Amino acid sequence: MQHDGLAARGTGAAAPFVLPQPERLALPDGAVQVWRLDDAQVDPACTRLAHTLAPDERARALAYRHARHCNGYIARRGLLRWLVGGYLHCQPEALRLTVSPFGKPVLQWPQTGLAFSVAHTDGLALLAFARDCRLGVDVERRAGGVAGGVNAADVPGFGRGIFSVQEAQVLARARPASAEALLSIWTRKEALLKALGTGLSVDPTAYTTEDDWRRGAGHWRASRDGIPMSGWTCLDLDAGAGFRAALAVSLPDASVAWHRC
Ligand SMILES: CC(C)(COP(=O)(O)OP(=O)(O)OC[C@H]1O[C@@H](n2cnc3c(N)ncnc32)[C@H](O)[C@@H]1OP(=O)(O)O)[C@@H](O)C(=O)NCCC(=O)NCCS
């Protein structure tokens, strides 16, 4: 497959990939829509969407050394353009995307209240959308029954410099399931920091994420320097047995729905 110099070489069996009709895309206030792109859909997504990428995005795609990473980026960015274009009633190729000093993709044109966040790991990409809020999503793979490929023996050192004191205590109490606990804290924290737009460029230990049992299983809450961040919906996402995922959105009672192509 060739796309103006962007090569999508086969990476395995292709799965069905049907793009949603733009006119059927609707994003109500207070709703978060999470789209999943499985690895087996990457090649068909590349074929359908590579032409929508801007020159700087094509250059970034071509800079990847491995075809797999190149194709994954084309598919994610193409699907991002398709869905943003659908929600905003614009042509995907007409959108102008730039990047913040911290690496967060930003919609420069058209300027609207559409918020989005992208995450990917080996085997899966997630793209989340909502209106008039801050939004972050993260996903990590559980490799061979071990969370994120992390060996349980390495867990205590792994979150150093990332986890707050309270999170480190939760991790210490979680043995022998500490690899799973680590992945839970990790995905929650990345989702939160991506929603804030800083990523790990701020001191991540200032933020604490913890279970919020009052709101139910799968809910968590966040605080900064001990001060609760109110008005947020923070959830673990069920992305399938092989993955751990989390979402943070600055809306008080957001509803979350899954979609796939
Ligand atoms: C954001 C960050 C936590 C992502 O970590 P990761 O686990 O490697 O990657 P993920 O799969 O979770 O997310 C990748 C996506 O996050 C998004 N992203 C990157 N930086 C982001 C930020 N600061 N805020 C929100 N989202 C960001 C991009 O959409 C990226 O997708 P892409 O590769 O298709 O462009 C990490 O890259 C980070 O801390 N970046 C900030 C550090 C910094 O200042 N970088 C400057 C680079 S210009």
CATH architecture: Alpha-Beta Complex
How large is the share of residues in beta strands? 25-35%
- The tally of strands reads 15
Approximate shape:
globular
Estimate the mean pLDDT confidence.
91
Report Rg.
18 Å
CATH topology: Ribosomal Protein L22, Chain A
- pLDDT < 50 stretches: 1-5, 7-11
Oligomer: single chain
Q: Would you kindly provide a brief summary of this structure?
A:
It is an enzyme of class 2 (transferase). This protein is 27% helix and 30% strand.
Task: Write structural notes for this entry.
With 261 residues, the chain is of the alpha+beta class. It has one domain (29-260): 4'-phosphopantetheinyl transferase domain (Ribosomal Protein L22, Chain A). The protein is built from six helices and 15 strands. A four-stranded mixed β-sheet has the order 6-7-3-15, covered by helices on one side. Helix 1 crosses helix 3 and helix 5 (165-173) runs antiparallel to helix 6. The chain starts with a strand and ends with a strand. 41% of the residues are buried. The chain binds coenzyme A. Residues 73, 76, 102-105, 117-120, 138, 190, 193-194, 197-201 line the site of coenzyme A. The site of coenzyme A has 19 residues, from helix 3, strand 6 and helix 6.
Question: Helix and strand layout, with pairings?
Answer:
Layout: E1 2-3, E2 6-7, E3 31-38, H1 42-49, H2 55-63, H3 67-88, E4 96-99, E5 105-109, E6 114-121, E7 124-131, E8 135-143, E9 146-147, H4 155-158, H5 165-173, H6 178-196, E10 207-211, E11 220-224, E12 227-228, E13 233-237, E14 243-249, E15 255-260
Parallel strand pairs: 3-15
Antiparallel strand pairs: 1-2, 3-7, 4-5, 6-7, 8-9, 8-14, 10-11, 11-12, 13-14
The structure holds coenzyme A.
Coenzyme A binds next to α3, β6 and α6.
